[in-house]
Every structure is written in structure tokens, then in C-alpha cells.
Amino acid sequence: MARRLPSPPKAGLLNGLRFGTDTIRFLEAIQARFDDGTSISIPGRPPLVILTGPDLVAEALDRPDDFTRIPARGAVAMIAENGLVQSEGDLWSQQRSIVAPSFGGRQVTAYANTTGERIESRATQWAEIGRQRTDLHREMTSLTVRVASEILLGEDIGKASADQFHEWMRIAGEEFEFGLETVLPEWVPTPTSPAFREAATGIRELSEGLIERRRTSLAAGERTDASDMLTALLRAEGDPDVDFPTNQIRDEVATFLIAGHETTALSLSYTLCLLSWYPEARRRVREEATAALGDGPPTRDDLSELEYTKRTYQEALRLYPPAWAVFRRVNGPVKLGGYTIEDGAAVIVPLWSIHRDARYFDEPDAFDPDRWARRDPNAVAAYRPFASGPHACIGRGLALSGATLVLARLVRDFDVDVPDDALDDLRLTPTLRPAAGISATIDPLD
Ligand code: HEM
């Protein structure tokens, strides 16, 4: 007979408060205590279900009708209401099938090669500047947002807009930061700040500008063979079988501008921090990159020679998953494994704490890229930085190939060093963000 998931010993409200104020430590304590998961009652809110076991996680993520996305409301909807990251059901499947071809093998090659060219010119600039102190996270954001806009939307937004975007994302991060309001009763309104409203307007207007320019160039018969995502969306507009809600294309552009760069920028920053702290791993990446890369920009063809660099990135995504959790709402009541879960329950899949659980990873706190050469089945089953199931990340191939080339190119020619406490103050927004950037020294090798 199905039973309910167990609850932690303290009263629901206390657990809720700890969840809202000391989220990471709370999730780690829950992870250590419960094999499958827990259900926590919070007064005035639906129960909070935290899934800790990889089998239950896989099953929940495979059943999007029972474990649905949480609809975009309030501040999130001010940026995009119906993009692929937010939508569900028929709209989601229509949108996913329109954009999916833009993420196939040809696009991955184009993305990897464009990333290679962009990192080559960034590395040339860094070499000209010489030793410098800079915000590593800003550098990585400006690189990835420009590559994402060029590849997905057919236009590089340029340095000024990329810097502006970084600032908008910082403001949005503050707005979306996890805190007490996470556990306040649902009727308590949470107002948005003027700075956030301005950032949301800026992102929408930037998206509209990109759409208008691409629409005009398509109408003028320019670049009609383009296979980028925005072109696919604009072509679909004329298809009688396609039904776009108002602002759908703008929502997708804003969504992809964000989803297409932020997590990748964070993951690159975190990997470079780890390599600064683990000199032997950095030495091995450098040795591999020196043997694999030629004189010009790195390309997709170099990837097969960069196995250790790939493992390094994979391991950094385990320890610092930029999407630190996946969120769902139960459309039920439903059965999951041997458990019944209440209708309306908020479900959290805490990738951060699952990825650091000693039941699945030997020496879970160690940065050990070679664990991925050993392919321990427990580790493989528990590792989900891109989620899984129908909503699994559509940009996974792009991120893996682009990031590997960036890391190889930078580590070959530069020491990027950060202080030991660079990642001590991480903030939980929908992504895991450094509170105040990452101050790094970039030193060209002789
Ligand atoms: C290291 C980089 C990345 C990480 C860690 C990451 C992580 C994730 C995760 C965990 C999800 C699942 C969210 C959920 O189920 O609620 C997701 C979905 C998604 N990601 Fe990524 N992502 C990355 C890069 C990218 C890139 C480069 C793009 C676009 C070019 C992208 C676009 C998306 C989209 C559109 C979805 C929603 C897919 C759907 O529901 O059909 N991501 N990503």
C-alpha cells in the first residue's frame, strides 16, 4: 500500500523557516536523513516535498503531467511568461518541436566553432592586457551571452549590451533570491523593486529589437538559409498549424537569451575557480590543451582530444550545479515509487545536495575529474546537472562542447587564480550565483 513520505522531526513551520533562511544547509541535512525524500507541512502553503533519491527523481521528471512546471507569475512573468523554460502541455510541445532542429548536430558544430572564435579573440585581448585583476563572472557572462545571441538569434548583441545584460541579471538575481518569502503564506504579496522592473523592461526591449531586425532582414530576402532558433520561430509564425499566444516570440527570445548564457557562464566561472584550487588538475588540462589545440581558434574537431578537460567540466557541474534545484508542482494526488504525494505539493529536486551525497559519490566533497572515467553506475544515476525527462536541458550539447573549448583555450595560456573563499558566499536564485562576482587574477603564461 502506498504511504506518505516521512516528515522531519521538527514542526513544519520551523523546518519551513530553515528552508527559507539557510536553504543549502537545510537541504544537506534532509539529504543525509532521508533515502527517498520528505514531505514538510508549512502553514498557509502547500506541502513542500524534497526528493533525495535518484530513482524517485528520475520518475518524477519523467512524468510532466503529474509533476508540472510552476507557471510563471509576478516578477518571472515580467521577463517572459511562456518561454520554453516555463511552458507546459501543448504549448510546450509545439515550441519544443519548432526550436529542436536548431539544437541538432549541425548547430552544435556551429556553436562550438563560434565559441572557439570568440574565445580566441578574448584570449588575444587578455594576452595584450597582461596580468590583470577582473571579475571572472562578468567576463564569462559577456562571452556566453554574445555567443548565445549570435548562434540562437542570428546577431551578436555586442559588448555594451552584454555588459548591460550582466547588470540586469545581477538585479534579477537579487529579486529572485530565495529567502523568507519562500515560506510566507501564499497570500502575502511580494512587490518588485523599481530596478528590477527596469531590468525586465530592458530585457524585453532588447528581445524586441532582435526580433524586428531579423524579421526585416528575412523580409528583405537576406540570410534565408539561416537555421538559427529565431529564424525557425519567425518562419513558424506563418504556419496555419501553429498557434502563438501574444508575445510568444518575444518570450522565447528573452528566455533563450537568459537560459542560453547564464548557466554556462556560471559553470565556466566555477570550473576555473576549482582549477585554481587544484593545480594538478589544471596542469593536466593545460597539458592536454597544448597537445590538442592548434594555432588558430579551437574548433569542434578538437573536442575528441579533450577528454580530461571534459571530465573536469563534468565534475565542476557536479560540485557547483548552476541549476542547483529543479522545481515542480504536483497535479494530483499522485503515486511516486511506493508513496502518495498530495495535490498541489511543491516539489524540489535539490541537485546540489544529491550531487554531494556519499551514497552515490565516493569522497563527495573532493574535486576528482577522474571519477567520470571510472563511470560508477551509482554516480551516473545520481548526476543530473541538466535534469532529465522531457524537459531536460535542450542546450546540453551546446553547453558541453562550447565550455570544453573555452576551458582548454584559457587554461592553455593563462593562470586564472581566485582566492580560497571566492565561492563562500553563493546566493540561491533559480541559479546558484556568486553574491558579488568573482575577483580573479588573470596572468598570461610566458
Ligand atoms: C551548463 C549549462 C546549463 C545547465 C547546467 C542547464 C541546466 C538546465 C536544467 C537543470 C534544466 C531543466 C529545468 C527544468 O526541468 O525545470 C534546463 C532546461 C532548459 N535549458 Fe538548460 N542548462 C544549461 C545550458 C543551456 C543552454 C546553453 C541553453 C540554450 C541554448 C539552455 C536552454 C534550456 C531550455 C530552453 C530549457 C527548458 C527545456 C524544456 O523544458 O523543454 N540551457 N537546463
UniProtKB/TrEMBL annotation:
Pfam families: p450. This is Cytochrome P450. The keyword Ribonucleoprotein does not apply. InterPro entries: Cyt_P450 (IPR001128), Cyt_P450_E_grp-I (IPR002401), Cyt_P450_sf (IPR036396), Cytochrome_P450_Monoox (IPR050196). Signal peptide: none annotated. It comes from the Archaea. Keywords: Heme, Iron, Metal-binding, Monooxygenase, Oxidoreductase. It comes from Natronomonas salsuginis. Belongs to the cytochrome P450 family. GO terms for molecular function: heme binding; iron ion binding; monooxygenase activity; oxidoreductase activity, acting on paired donors, with incorporation or reduction of molecular oxygen.
